[in-house]
Amino acid sequence: PVLVHAHSRFLVAGFLSYQIKLKFSIPYIYSEHSSFYHRGKVDQRLLPYIKKSIDHADYFTAVSNKLYNTVLNFIGSINNDVKIMHNVLDNCFQVPLNRTNLQQPVLINIASLDQNKNQVALIKAIPILKKKYPHIQLQLVGIGADKEKLSELVIAENLGDTVQFLGQQTSEQVKKLLDAADLFVLPSFFETFGVAVIEALARGVPVVVTKCGGSEEYFEEFTGKMIESFDPDSLARGISEVLENYELYSSNQIRNYSLSKFGTAAILKEHSQLYYQVINLT
Description:
This protein is α/β, with parallel strands linked by helices. It has 10 helices and 10 strands. Helix 7 crosses helix 9 and helix 9 packs parallel to helix 10. The model has no long low-confidence stretch (mean pLDDT 93).
């Protein structure tokens, strides 16, 4: 090969690419996607190997500035060219829209069921919203360690007929769920990027997201609402504001925006330019 692109979770791909470069003089790009840095799951003993892998790459990329700064804080310095390169949409989310209009507001959250994703606050926001939207529905798509805790909360809040746990779904199933949803909500405490957010946007669904990292870099007012607090009251206000002004959000505009930034053509062009740049430099 004339170029190696290592998509690394800390060590294996990046360090192997570094060894290949030493032995065969093949350039490599080191790309980081993982939230493990922020979550404190990186073994400190690996730090010198990670830094060496990044510093000797011909380019280091991260999916967001938030993730880049997190990696930078972890390893101390990055002595390399850096580029922010976002994730790409799965092809199934790029097909023409097939929106389904329902009678009651349907909220959807697509995420692992864990503390960081903050579904507790989202569930607690539902009783507040039910005062104005008595038939509102919440669909939770995903699996995780907090499933039992969240199920107990749903029972305690008497929301058994309102909140659905749909478990793990295929991309095609997620697409169909998004096409039937009115609003995507992600109240996370931290996101390196937020793939589920751009998937929702690609299906023309407005979003309510917290100011927690990755999605800050591509959120626009015409795509929904960004809130700075993580509590149920703030979530309920943000959700209600979008639902009250729903006619202001154009599914086609939201979809076209997502495809223009994260569609295959856009990401392929960006990567091709970087590949040619690295190859020509070496």
